[in-house]
Amino acid sequence: MISTPRGGEPSPVRVLLIEDSKGDARLLREDLEISTTPFEVTHVLRLDEGLARLEQSPFDLLLLDLHLPDSQGFATFEAAVQRAPGIPIVVLSGLSDERTGAQAVQNGAQDYLVKGQIPPGLLERTLRYAMERSRSSAALRSSEERYRQFFEEDLAGAFIATPDGAMLACNPAFARMFGFDTVEAATARSVGSYFPNVDEAVAMREAIRVGKKLVDHALPLRRADGTPIHTIGNLIGGFSPGGDLQEIKGYLFDDSERRQLEEELRQSQKMESIGRLAGGVAHDFNNLLTVILGYADTVLEQCEPSDPRRADVEEIRVAGLRAAALTQQLLAFSRRQVLQVRVIDLTDVILHLKRMLTRVLGETVDLVTTLSPNGHVKADATQIEQVLINLALNARDAMPEGGTLTIATRPLRILPDAARKPSGPPPGEYIELSVTDTGHGIEPDVLPKLFEPFFTTKKSGRGTGLGLATVYGIVKQSNGEISVETQIGKGTTFRVHLPLSRESVPEGAREDSTGTDSGGAETILLVEDESAVRFIASRLLRSKGYSVIEAVNGPDALDQSGRHSGVIDLLITDLVMPRMSGREFSEQFLRLRPGTPVLFISGYTDDDVVRDLIARGGAAFLQKPFEPEALARTARRLLDGPRAPSPLVGASSSGD
Ligand code: ADP
Ligand code: MG
Question: Less packed terminus of the chain by CB within 10 Å, N or C?
């Protein structure tokens, strides 16, 4: 018990004796000198002297007379305790005030001795026991303190509850996790109130009663404000010797964020696969629609103005165009559109569109715009208009009684911040485009499906469910993010974040592609694997006066081009073809015939190099299904345009 320096004699117990009677002090010292425990006694006569000594050097024990010249009775003890907390004190009292000694013991003195009544050996024993008791209670206190701190500082939410659902204790992490301001507020609630319904609390208790514990158990619970929180918990039952469940201890971890990320990932994978499906369907439909529209036009051309069949064919054409618009939206969603990406000023785009939006919104909806002066982003202006129109149409539908639509732009800097949602946009400078309505809001169960194609809550005939799918595709393809906030009965805000561009808007950015003259006598190489499309296109081009060399795929085209001794003035080629892609083929072709202008025709392109090339004006692109006249016009424009020196050959190796 008494500390022993390694290998040597036990070190003496340092006793401070405060005793004004020199005689009593001598007796006590003599008693201690003959004891087996080595004591080292420091003796002073007054309390103030004693207190000063306590400050100067460490003591293991205080032997304190309560009646001193400068302090009397219980107050002496109180003063000593205050100055020397943690040092065991044995008080000395006279026969007449034994009660004061007892009072001191009640208040923390280890023991008391009555002077003049101390048989041999008692003093030593008393002092030794006093020290032992003091040591073990200090050890207990510090171990309790350790556990309390552990509980308090634990990052897991810890709690103890009774089987009938009363909370006995919880730690600050638990209170924080569930959104309570204080631990007391959290313990005041019953265990059942943390569960979405009480049956689940009962089921948990029974599972613990039977299985003794639950390990890594998923517990969907509720926060103070009722919002859901996903926790993972280890729960342990405390049982009486008879086997009755007496208490439940739990350690809970907040798993909400991981769950949400998982959910977002699942959601984006789903969008991705729907996108692929939609893109594939659209691609095949575009070929079919090119044929349908091409033949409809041919028939129309052959019909006399008075022919009664004209109206029927018109119907076919109109339906074909509607279908083409639909596949266009699917393509937008699947992010496989060929975008005409330029630096544009969002503010300009919105101002341009304002008149039209006002018309779309009708008289009952007010349009308010708050636009930031600098809104330069890299995007396709027409597509951004599409985004705005779709969002505005939805907003209008959400405000049948009228309301306000606010379109706002503002610069936004997203800082590299650990607290940032990992699924959000990466740090950087953005322009935020927000579209806010004061409509009926969106039900929570609808939110996860909002951007899916063909998801609509509108009556059949009213909605196609393609509006937001298109918006989503366009925003993603423009390297942006879209999010939505909504409140039932209050309204909805869609926020689009597009990366800010530091470049300025090029002059004459919006070109007009409508020309009138579309005929000519040049030679065109037409490569298209779909025979009906090839047939329509070549017939049209021939009807305009061109000579057309038709090829069914890349190798065939290279072969024919090799055998053709004259000039080839224009290459028109499909992009998605078996055996050799349109890009591969055109690269080879241009090596042989550099400078030939190229027109790609396709439903979409997966090829980033081609996309980039088209975006930079190195080649032209015509979206399928095209109307024959558009093909002839674009061909003419390319034939008349400046010859770019072999754009494709350099494109794949150049980095800019
Ligand atoms: P559609 O408008 O054809 O139904 P969308 O893809 O544009 O298809 O929208 C899908 C659904 O999202 C709508 O049916 C509607 O339930 C909901 N929605 C979209 N925008 C809003 C809005 N601003 N307010 C309320 N609900 C909206
Ligand atoms: Mg819509």
Answer: C
Atom of ligand 1 nearest to the CA of 470: 6
Could you tell me if 377 and 344 are in contact, meaning their C-beta atoms sit under 8 angstroms apart? yes
- List all residues 6 or more positions away from 62 whose beta carbon is below 8 Å from its beta carbon: 15, 16, 18, 50, 54, 80, 84, 87, 88, 89, 90
State the distance from the centre of ligand 1 to the C-alpha of 450, rounded, in angstroms: 7
Ligand 1 proximity of 238 Cβ (cutoff 6 Å): no
When pLDDT is averaged across residues 40-54 and rounded to a whole number, the result is: 93
Burial of 136 (0-12, 13-18, 19+ CB in 10 A): exposed
Cα 114 to Cα 9, 37, 105, 110, 288, distances in angstroms: 32, 22, 13, 14, 114
**Could you give the percent of the chain with pLDDT greater than 90?**
40
Ligand nearest to the CA of 457: 1
191 close to ligand 1 (CB < 6 Angstrom): no
Give, for 283, the enclosing helix (H) or strand (E).
Answer: helix 256-302
> 483 alpha carbon to ligand 2 midpoint, in Å?
16
CB neighbour class for 445 (10 Å; exposed up to 12, middle 13-18, buried from 19):
exposed
Q: Does the Cβ of 73 fall within 6 Å of ligand 1?
A: no
The model's pLDDT over 501-547, given as tens digits with 9 standing for 90+, comes to 888 776 654 444 444 567 788 999 999 988 888 888 888 898 888 99
- Answer whether 458 contacts ligand 1 (Cβ < 6 A): yes
Q: Which atom of ligand 1 is nearest to the CA of 435?
A: 23
Summarised one tens digit per residue, pLDDT across range 374-402 is: 889 999 888 898 899 899 999 999 999 99
Contacts (Cβ under 8 Å, ≥6 apart) of 460:
none
What are the CA-CA distances from residue 186 to residues 119, 153, 228, 279 (Å)?
58, 16, 16, 52
**Pocket lining: 435 vs ligand 1, CB cutoff 6 Å:** no
Residue 43's closest CA among 57, 22, 58? 22
Taking CA atoms only, the protein residue closest to ligand 1 atom 19 is 394
Closest CA to 391 of 336, 424, 434, 425: 434
